[in-house]
Amino acid sequence: QIVCSAVYRQSSHVRPELRDRDPDNRLLARQSSLRLTAEAIRDSALAASGLLSRSLGGPSVRPPQSASTVMGGFGKSGWKVSERDGRYRRALYIFIKRATPFPQLATFDAPNARDSCTHRERSNTPLQALTLLNDPVFFECAQAFGARIVQEGGKDPADRLRYAFRLCLCREPGAEELKSLQALFQRLRKFCEAVPAG
Asked: Residues 172-197: pLDDT tens digits?
């Protein structure tokens, strides 16, 4: 009943007549735009790239993390990174030591494992953007996503851009969005052609 309600199905677009009357959306006149949870951010990147392992149950997994975190939290016992599909399982299965939270999830406000959590905090920090750019899992996702687009997206660059957009956002790009993506693609192509390989 909640999912079928008019309030739940509203757009997050802010209508001008309501901007002044209800700036904090206390009357639920629009849908609130919310960032995905820490676990869903990782899982959605893996899903879009085609790397997500959908296997259920089994032992915890250990994705890659920095050597300093491993040494500080696990000492000599170390952190043996899971292999093959294991490293691409859902975040639900990540091994977490209560005294040493998994850094990637903590960056995106995952609650600590010591206490029960009734409300998740949401923050926006530069560290989150840096994690998306530099974390080994997201780097592997970007590589696999690129390969998936080339293999499954057709031959035409515009078709590939549309396919990538659909994989990430589950909708077709608008005309302006496609135009911006094509311009970015051309700039990146020129940059890559100018930089020698190796």
From this structure: 999 999 999 999 999 988 998 888 77
* Cβ-Cβ contacts under 8 Å for 73 (sequence gap 6 or more): 97, 99, 100
- The structure's pTM equals 0.76
User: Which one, of 152, 163, 40, lies nearest residue 105 by Cα?
Assistant: 40
Per-residue pLDDT tens for 123-163?
Answer: 888 988 988 888 888 999 999 999 999 999 889 989 999 99
Cα distances from 167 to residues 89, 105, 156, 161, in angstroms, run 19, 23, 17, 10
- Please write down the long-range contacts of 150-157, taking CB distance under 8 Å and 24 or more positions apart: 157/182, 157/185
The predicted model gives 99-119 an average pLDDT of 78
Residue 30 contacts residue 10 (beta carbons within 8 Å): yes
Cα–Cα distances in angstroms (integers) from residue 94 to residues 15, 39, 56, 75, 112, in the given order = 41, 10, 13, 18, 13
Distance, in Å, from the CA atom of 69 to the CA atom of 181, rounded to the nearest integer, reads: 37
